[in-house]
């Protein structure tokens, strides 16, 4: 166990644990947290349950009735009447927290309780404001995740870092600790499921330390990731992007604004790949047994649609969604996207068969070229902007 630099023997931390249908994990995680707490630290565990059908909240209530009172480790349960989302659950827990330091974590053991002392130690030792348990720095990794989950996580991280200008390697981490006073003046919206992302965007002049850890996918219970979660994430990123002054109003150089928009266009394209992949898989063996080619068509349409909305509102800052104009723009966007797909296929064929370039390299070159062509065409013709602006 990591040695803790204790300034005050009465230091208290509050550990927020949002739950929904975690009956198989909740008692074990509460016991494990207690067993891994450092000495001279008083902890308040707050379980925020969203009216779990499997009785997660009641299980904790029954457990507390027979639990011998412990002075340095208390457990409280907040029962919410509806499933209002992970972000608002964390916010509710923070409002009830008594500690000066807050730890946020999941209850399914994907966030190992033995990392809690390292998070606390980092804030004390390095006098930082936030300590993030990171999967994406040296020493961190992910175990037992499917390729699909890894891709979605990577794309979401890229969107957060490039779109919101965040330097933290794992801004999508759901496992972190912070000093409670840094959010005292903040208006936390809690849209989506990543409170850390909102804190990173809205706080100023804070210091951050990342701690490597191994994320292990849950063994019991089921994942909460779904289409709604992904859409909520996009909504939260857009709102966070609009927080403060937009980049275009600060930057006067046309070349910089062009590259900035191009970077956003590529970022949106990456997110479209994730949407395409997830939707296609959902219809081919997920929510239906649709033929895989038909499912892929739906995935393509979904990705084109999501790309159009994000590019219209985010990349090009066009928030005029009048029906006639939007339909016209969508038609042009879909046409240019289809043209880009043909260019990509033709370029791959020529590079591989004629130039004898390896397929992976040819694919990268073709995708980049087609995407840049899409950006230029949509910038000039779909959204009626000057080419370099």
Q: Report Rg.
A: 23 Å
Structural class: alpha/beta
The percent range for helix content is 40-55%
Based on the coordinates given, report the CATH architecture of the largest domain. Alpha-Beta Complex
Total E-strand runs: 9
Q: Per the principal axes of the C-alpha atoms, what is the gross shape?
A: elongated
What is the number of helices? 12
| Average of pLDDT | 83
What is the CATH C level class of the largest domain, in words? Answer: Alpha Beta
Strand share of the residues? 5-15%
Question: Would you identify the regions where 5 or more consecutive residues have pLDDT less than 50?
Answer: 1-10, 245-250
Number of domains: 2
| Pattern of helices and strands | EHEHEHEHEEHEHEEHHHHHH
What's the assembly state of these chains?
A: single chain
CATH homolog superfamily of the largest domain: Spore Coat Polysaccharide Biosynthesis Protein SpsA, Chain A
Descriptive notes:
The strands form two sheets. The chain has a seven-stranded mixed beta sheet with strand order 3-2-1-4-7-5-8. The protein has a two-stranded parallel sheet with strand order 6-9. The termini are far apart. α5 (147-164) packs antiparallel against α9 and α9 packs antiparallel against α10. The chain folds into two domains: 12-222, Spore Coat Polysaccharide Biosynthesis Protein SpsA, Chain A (Alpha-Beta Complex), CATH 3.90.550.10; 245-382, no CATH class. With 389 residues, it is of the alpha/beta class. The protein has twelve helices and nine strands.
């Amino acid at each position: 166990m990591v040695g803790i630099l204790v300034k005050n023997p009465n230091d208290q931390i509050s550990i927020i644990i949002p739950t929904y249908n975690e009956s198989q994990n909740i008692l074990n995680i509460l016991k494990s947290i207690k067993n891994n707490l450092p000495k001279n630290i008083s902890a308040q565990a707050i379980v925020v349950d969203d009216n779990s059908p499997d009785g997660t909240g009641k299980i904790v209530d029954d457990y507390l009735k027979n639990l011998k009172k412990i002075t340095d480790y208390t457990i409280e349960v907040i029962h919410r009447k509806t499933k209002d989302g992970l972000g608002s659950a964390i916010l509710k827990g923070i409002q009830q927290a008594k500690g000066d330091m807050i730890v946020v974590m999941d209850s399914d053991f994907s966030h190992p309780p033995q990392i809690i002392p390292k998070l606390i130690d980092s804030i004390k030792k390095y006098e930082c404001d936030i300590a993030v348990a990171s999967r994406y720095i040296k020493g961190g990794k992910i175990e037992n995740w499917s390729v699909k989950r890894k891709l979605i996580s990577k794309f979401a991280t890229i969107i957060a870092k490039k779109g919101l200008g965040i330097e933290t390697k794992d801004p999508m981490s759901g496992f972190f600790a912070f000093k409670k006073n840094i959010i005292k003046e903040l208006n936390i919206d809690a849209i989506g499921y990543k409170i850390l992302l909102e804190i990173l965007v809205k706080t100023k002049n804070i210091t951050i330390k990342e701690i490597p850890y191994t994320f292990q996918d849950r063994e019991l219970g089921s994942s909460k990731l779904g289409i709604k979660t992904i859409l909520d994430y996009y909504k939260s990123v857009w709102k966070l992007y609009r927080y403060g002054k937009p980049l275009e109003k600060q930057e006067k150089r046309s070349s910089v604004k062009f590259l900035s928009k191009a970077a956003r266009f590529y970022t949106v394209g990456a997110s479209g790949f994730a949407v395409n992949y997830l939707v296609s898989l959902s219809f081919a063996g997920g929510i239906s047994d649709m033929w895989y080619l038909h499912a892929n068509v739906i995935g393509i349409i979904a990705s084109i649609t999501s790309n159009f909305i994000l590019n219209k509102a985010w990349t090009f800052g066009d928030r005029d969604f009048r029906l006639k104009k939007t339909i016209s723009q969508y038609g042009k966007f879909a046409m240019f996207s289809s043209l880009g797909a043909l260019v990509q296929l033709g370029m791959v064929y020529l590079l591989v068969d004629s130039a004898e370039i390896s397929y992976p390299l040819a694919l990268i070159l073709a995708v980049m070229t087609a995407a840049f062509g899409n950006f230029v065409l949509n910038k000039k013709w779909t959204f009626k902007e000057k080419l370099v602006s």
